[in-house]
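Journal club prep — side note

Before the paper discussion, L.F. wants everyone to see what a predicted structure for a comparable chain looks like in token form. Sequence:
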Amino acid sequence: MNAPIDTHADWHDMPNPCAFAALIGPVQRRRDGAHWRYGLRVAPQHTNSTGIMHGGVITAFLDEVVGEIVNDLGNRKNVTVQFATTFLSKAQVGDFLECACEIVRATRSMTFIQASLNVNGEAIATATAIFKAMRPAT
């Protein structure tokens, strides 16, 4: 496992990531009260041909970590129903991205989210998402 990104903020590798999150990562997380915060250090494999972070990686990272946050809330798995990303600025190799997430509304089976992806407290992307809780296997 990699060393924590920022030891004074208690960032650590996310344990047991799914195969897709492992491709993006290492995804980092830290405890923030009762919830987890998620982050990622931009590396060369995250960049596009212009040398900045690829928008597809930004969207995939947001979808993955917002899904983890939603799953943690209800202690059950959810799937993405809708996901829209707006790109506001760029991220470069070496930048540390941190996801901030707000639950707009939660029903019995649906969760509505607004999220932002920040570098040094400044948003580089925002997202709106809808997640649907999966039914238990029968």
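L.F.'s comment for the group: The mean pLDDT is 89. Keep this in mind when we get to the figures.
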